[in-house]
Amino acid sequence: MKELLKDIFNFIKGLFTKHPNSVGESYLKHMAWAIFFSIAFLFAGVICLIHAIFPFLFVETASSVAEWIVDTSKRRKGYYDHDKYRDDFHT
Which range has the worst mean pLDDT, 9-23, 24-38, 43-57, 72-86? Predict the structure, then answer.
């Protein structure tokens, strides 16, 4: 029974740590980056919505934010080749 509980715990732990570890980050560091990028995407979304209504406002802001997000993610220590993990998501 003890071994079974240990196996279950390790399986659940792996669900939360496999991807972060694969990009050289801890679970908490990966979570912080994900929250940070989520906020940046929300900001860009609001800017896009305003731009949709008032096309003369924020003419290049949303695309600049998107480029900044991509550049920032590529500069992170754990940047990786997405194709390497394609099978994890397309099985």
Answer: 72-86
